[in-house]
Design brief:
- About 50% of the residues are buried.
- The chain has 13 helices and 15 strands.
- β5, α6 (about 150-155) and β6 form a beta-alpha-beta unit.
- It is of the alpha/beta class.
- The strands form 3 sheets. Strands 4-10-9-8-7-5-6 form a 7-stranded mixed sheet, sandwiched between helices.
- It is globular.
Length: about 450
Amino acid sequence: MTPQGTPDPQAGAAVKAADRAHVFHSWSAQGLIDPLAVAGAEGSYFWDYEGNRYLDFASGLVFTNIGYQHPKVVAAIQEQAAKMTTFAPAFAVEARSEAARLIAERTPGDLDKIFFTNAGAEAVENAIRMARLHTGRHKVLSAYRSYHGGTNTAINLTGDPRRWASDSGSAGVARFWAPFLYRSPFHATTEAEECSRALKHLEDTIVFEGPGTIASIILESVPGTAGIMTPPAGYLPGVRALCDKYGIVLILDEVMAGFGRTGKWFAADHYDVVPDLLTFAKGVNSGYVPLGGVAISRKIAETFEHRPFPGGLTYSGHPLACAAAVATIKVMEEEGIVEHAAHIGATVLEPGLREIAERHPSVGEVRGLGVFWALELVRSQETREPLVPYNASGADNAPMAAFGAACKKNGLWPFINMNRTHVAPPCNITEGEAKEGLAVLDEALTVADQHTV
């Protein structure tokens, strides 16, 4: 790692050259990308080989919940590597057992069994398999505005355009509209109307799809990449009630929203909802070593007490990953990081973003919780026309590209998706760092304002 503030362009050029020659990047046209060569990272910042430093308002891909290079977690990984670097998943290993115990203590309700995976998509794959085997049904309902991962079942469940190229049309998936008042598909004018109409629509979908064919409904507790649309009060409890009524397994996807991101351990805690299965990854160990999993309720775990679960992974519960999770959870407790995320959201990010919105005609809506926020950028606040078209690329996406460039020019690394910029810094970002980021965001939005009407 190049020390912060020590430029080494020659080393950066070598890293970039090797990347361009050999690394095949995800979600990209390989010849059209120009990845930044990163020299190092610490806390809420990372820097390149030219000596430019960036405040990371994306937390990597919304996973560095405790920031980069936390010394206690780095030390825990080093200690585990010296003690036991790896071991097969069929054995009881201290790091794995302790990680499962700590996670189970924090998940809602009776989600006390933990199946470990390497990432969120694998967690979703296995949660769906559990639901199908538990119910003896095959069909799954998922929302249009959603993302559940890039593997086969997960991508078919996904609602956004990343699904289109891989949609098999035969994965047993049916979709519905989840609530989103700002762009209501139900012509609602209040959160209460949106909630009740969305629940009616979901029940109609269940009835017309055939309740006896539906194994599961999967929802992100708070949708992440799709736009951080916090559900209206009563919606998730209403979905829970529909699942109970029709014998459907409720899966809440907390891969992005979990482990402090919304100011609680899990976003479901905001809504007093206990799912049957809960998927997690990312923030469980701040992404330091790949880890994901499924938290399983008692009734579903009992299905597999005397019946083998037909699923497994070579690296399930990898000792290095689990040691990182144990250390991360302990750091979050010791440093009050979950509570800090709630505090910084309520006292700095929310009021700061709302003040920014008042100054910029390009900001249509501000929404979020904790350190998980989105600004909906529009061409017109009156018509709510998005600043760029849905799934825009190339020239059509120029306004968002220009906004992003303005952020980076002034040392802020944004999370941009379609016509939105998300504000998802580490959960332990300081007040000063958060205000620094908001100031850059405020200035960069003047570029977006130039494209309003």
